[in-house]
Amino acid sequence: MKTRFGRAALTGLLAFAVLTLAASAITASAQQPAASPPQQARIYMMRGLFGIFSLGIDSLAGKLREQGYDPQIYGWDQWGQIASEILANDRTGDTGHIILIGHSLGSDSTIQVASAVRQANIPIDLIVTFDITQPLRVPSNVLRFANFFQHNGFGQEAVPGYGFTGELVNIDLTADTSIGHGNIDEVPRLQQAVIDKVLEITVQQTKRPPARAKRRPVS
Q1: What is the Cα–Cα distance from 203 to 120, expressed in whole angstroms?
Q2: Helix axes 105-118, 79-91, angle to 10 degrees
């Protein structure tokens, strides 16, 4: 499903909240420490060029750690290392949630990770991107994809790739002049929307997809 929202940032955020299905309950959870550790989840976060400009990736990782997660931060060019780890974990029977978050070139790299593990029939539960720099095609093994972007000379919309049937939302923040390519990943309300979605998937969601070994190969 491809959705493009209106020019106002608020419209995009409301649309993303609708996709969470339980936004109010999730936000309440986010304001309090979790009663128990979240379900097993591997969160990989990728910085942009040179690895020094994506300060929001670091602050968002800190907020996720406060919720009991253990996000790992990488450079945009380390996507192969992430893919190798996911493949190795899968071979040991690890079927926990996999979440990828990136900014700028790090956003582009989330697609490379997902594509690299697609043939192993490994689903990616959630990808969140901040200002992808190319009109990327989302692979069929991605279940949910949210792209915060602006028409600012860098940001692009994501499009569904062949066989993609998951949730895809492009949230256009062009009208918000306080946001630019360099700080789009630092905006508190966007970070909270990401945390809410992670909580929904890993804590609120009671059912996981069938075991990967039993799933049909992705097309």
Answers
A1: 26
A2: 30
Q: Give strand pairing partners of 45.
A: 73, 101
pTM for this entry: 0.79
pLDDT at residue 160 in the model: 95
Could you write out the DSSP letters of every residue in 83-137?
HHHHHHHHHTT---EEEEEEETHHHHHHHHHHHHHHTTTPPB-EEEEES-SS-PE
How far apart, in whole angstroms, are the C-alpha atoms of residue 178 and residue 217?
A: 44
Confidence class for position 16, pLDDT limits 50, 70, 90: low
Domains of the chain: 2-23+40-205 (3.40.50.1820)
Condensed to tens digits (0 to 9), the pLDDT of residues 23-55 reads: 333 333 344 444 444 657 999 999 987 656 788
Instruction: Name the range with the highest mean pLDDT among 4-18, 97-111, 144-158.
Output: 97-111
* C-alpha torsion angle, residues 146, 148, 154, 160 (rounded to 10): 20
What's the rounded Cα separation, in Å, for the pair 110 and 154?
17
